[in-house]
Amino acid sequence: MRHPSVIARRVAAASVSLVVAAGAAACGPKDNDATSAGADSKPQKGGTLTVLNANPQEDFDPARLYTSGGGNVPSLVFRTLTTRNRENGAAGAQVVPDLATDTGRPSKNATVWTYTLKKGLKYEDGTPITSADIKYGIERSFAAELSGGAPYLRDWLIGGADYQGPYKDKKGLDSIETPDDLTIVFHLNKPEGEFPYLATQTQFTPVPKAKDTGTKYEEHPVSSGPYKVVKNENDGERLVLERNTHWSASTDAERKAYPDKIDVRSGLDSSVINQRLSASQGADAAAVTTDTNLGPAELAKVSGDKALAARVGTGHFGYTNYLAFNPKVKPFDNPKVRQAISYAVDRTSVINAAGGSSLAEPATTYLPDQKSFGYTPYDHFPAGKSGNPAKAEELLKEAGYKNGLTITLTHSNSKDFETSPEIATALQDALKKAGITVKLQGLEDNDYSDKIHSAKTEPGLFLAHWGADWPSGGPFLAPIFDGRQIVKDGANFNTGFLDDKSVNAEIDAINKLTDLDQAAQRWGALDKKIGEQALTVPLFHPVYKRLYGKDVKNIVISDWTGVLDISQVAVK
């Protein structure tokens, strides 16, 4: 995702994108004790599902949401051309048709994508959904007052970079054609084999032009999904959804829509959420959370209780926490210094600082440990479980630092178990063994984000993380390592300022592929090649552990989101 602060929100909200996000592949269903929960009886329709969240479901407008796979709560109301496959583990990392009859038909060079809508699609008021509505929904996402969604359409569509949205430019985008009510054609300015993944974003939700109320649309967006909004209080703090009687399961193979009503309550403290889910009293017995993990202390308590442990869903979202180097700042301009730090890292202590092995898994690759990303195992600077200070010292001497060196590590003061003081301190202790004195610079979250995302102020060494807009290597590697995406005046995410013609050319070549398995292999090989330059030190991938109420059934956790899929849940 282009902006890690958005990612953090999305992952927290289990969109994950999320966004969050939304999810190593082999670990999905295998260690998910929740998959067999409620197997004593078949899921039934009816009842009210309560959602207990810390963060409100803000900006509930399909134009403004930044999701992965359409999000969790949003995908109950907003259907899109394609969506994520709602299955456990690795199978859930696949893109499947939603409003469309297939995942898209590309031209030979993947610059033109054509979709045909299913017949019989209707809004909550019974009116038909047309291709023109999808075109309009996309166009309104270009309006400045409705910004916030994924930026890809602005980059990919011909004319997208200059388009100001339908309120200012009523002519619309010529690069989106609707020759009839069921057909929509997209013309791109460069080959994009992963367009079917992008078509899962909520910007591809149909919006009837006659019902568009601009910035007020979020209060009552017109539903194309199994539920409609009947209440939206305090910008998503309380969201109540009831059945859309015009939704038909015959046109929707993905959403189960078991509960009659979904009551989303936000603004709660995370410890309160976990206490309520643990107790499972009253309405909380049929409750879930889409944004609150179990912390280390809570997990220890839950693990000692068999009944509670059986109500924990385990998942993985494509997300990597890492150390980032700025090679423009001395001594990190010297590759041997970067390699020395890579060898000195003690991943065991880092994982302990992140909450322990139940909540974090060691990473030596930048890409997450999932097949869909093209995960290719490598460890160019093997530090073992607890670091290799001897090798680090050897490299430092070769770099001209025989008496060691002193460096500064910038981190956030947020207690997020990712870029926080605990992680920074663990690294400080490990590097000390290699003769590297680490001074810690802790910043408040907003200051930290501003500093590390500016090309002018980026520090030499800092903690960072990146999550997937969709489960592929493209949105993981391109924003961080494509030299053409270096932003000099604005938010920059190519932290190593890598501008390698061979890397840029390979990114372009992979983007032309419409065979996603073949593309995945190429992304993995590219990750391995870039890793040799030691521009980052991958540290760990998070594991999501979330409680759910005792009356909740049909738990599905895919590797796309890494969290319970609310569209599959049933309640007693």
TrEMBL record:
Ranges for the region named Disordered are 27-47
Q: Which UniProt keywords apply?
A: Signal
- One protein family per Pfam: SBP_bac_5
* Cleavable signal peptide: 1-26
Whether Membrane counts among this entry's keywords is no
| InterPro entries membership | Peptide/Ni-bd, SBP_5, SBP_5_dom
Solute-binding protein family domain ranges (all copies):
94-484
Question: Which protein, by its recorded name, is this?
Answer: ABC transporter substrate-binding protein
Native species: Streptomyces siamensis
**Taxonomic placement:** Bacteria, Bacillati, Actinomycetota, Actinomycetes, Kitasatosporales
